[in-house]
Amino acid sequence: MFDINHAIIQWRRKLTDAGIDNPDVIAELESHLRDEIEARTAAGMEPERAFEFAARKIGQARGLQQEFARARGWRNLMFRTGAGAKLSMVVALCLSAGLGVVSLVDENARRWFVFGLLAAGFFALFAWRRSVRLGAVDFDPEALALSTSEALVLAREEARGFNHDFVGTEHLLLGLLGEPDGRATKVLAGLGVTSAAVRAEIEKLVGVGVERSSALKLPYTPRARQALALAHEEAKALQQHRVEAEHVLLGLIREPTGVAGRVLASLRVDPDQVRQQILHQAGGPAGPT
Amino acid sequence: MFRKELVAASAEPLVLSLLAQGESYGYAIIQEIKARSGQQLQWTEGMLYPVLHRMEARGWIKSHWAKSENGRERKYYSLRADGKKVLAEQHQQWAAVHSVLAGLRKELHV
What we know:
Number of domains of chain A: 3
CATH topology of chain B: Arc Repressor Mutant, subunit A
CATH architecture of chain B: Orthogonal Bundle
Radius of gyration of chain B: 16 Å
Order of helices and strands of chain A: HHHHHHHHHHHHHH
CATH superfamily of the largest domain in chain A: Clp, N-terminal domain
Shape of chain B: globular
Shape of chain A: globular
Largest interface: A-B, 22 and 17 residues
Order of helices and strands of chain B: HHHEEH
Oligomer: heterodimer
CATH architecture of the largest domain in chain A: Orthogonal Bundle
């Protein structure tokens, strides 16, 4: 039986996960959600449908997310920038500093100094752009379809189940499979991939951790983040503005050296076949509504 | 369908004008604007709430929680003195844009 209060508690938790951590804002959005649900049910919609409709509408609140992402922006730039980006920035800065010192004694090196500065600038810009592109995944959860956010929650639970202290591509794969009616699940089931088989492969490849992580929020591995970034690209390429489970699957198979890629390979899944089947289905209706 | 830029630019004066008539809350504001525009302006939550929060941070509007007629708490927004000034200013600017536009249009049909 559908319990509206229970559903709203879950929904609130999801908002918090998405980075909206101001209780006042959450309360305001909940009041809005309840108004929307009341209006829909008054118009004859089933409570469950009304809830889904209202939650989805607020879920599209891109502006809200950005509002909060901005407040966190600094922290992300400092701590979330990829190691590669940091390294190239440091190298570029050292290079130009070194050239600067040499240029004090050598006439000829002055020209190189200018060149070095320019190169450092380009380097830094490139590194920054890249880190923004990679980092964007975490802060764009409102672009995810409802079922995809649910898959990500499941992925996190799977990671905890393995006592892993990160959410990797393998957990994302399990998260996708946790949605029995999802397109990704159907495509994978058609190719003989089940949750149980994937779990067994993960145990073989990665093993089970000894101790449960005490971290409140497990971080994504760089590859999992990359897979999610690729999922965004796939959704865009298919001209869909929501990232659905099948787009995440497309992102995962584009990372063949990730654990999910290796699991699928050892289950003899052909990435091209997965892609074909998803694209073949993409024209159809978007699953059960 | 209104252009995104126009929707964004007109949000502030519309909300301020609405609140000048009395306090209101997010959901009602969206419904009111929708009805008044003949369904042409369909604001999203993602558009409205950041605008409200921004105007509150600037001291143009203020908010308080109060129980509504159905017993639930709602966050009501109302205009402050600064907001009234901004509203007058924005009214004047929109009127200027409108008069130029209307003038040019008239000349076109002469």
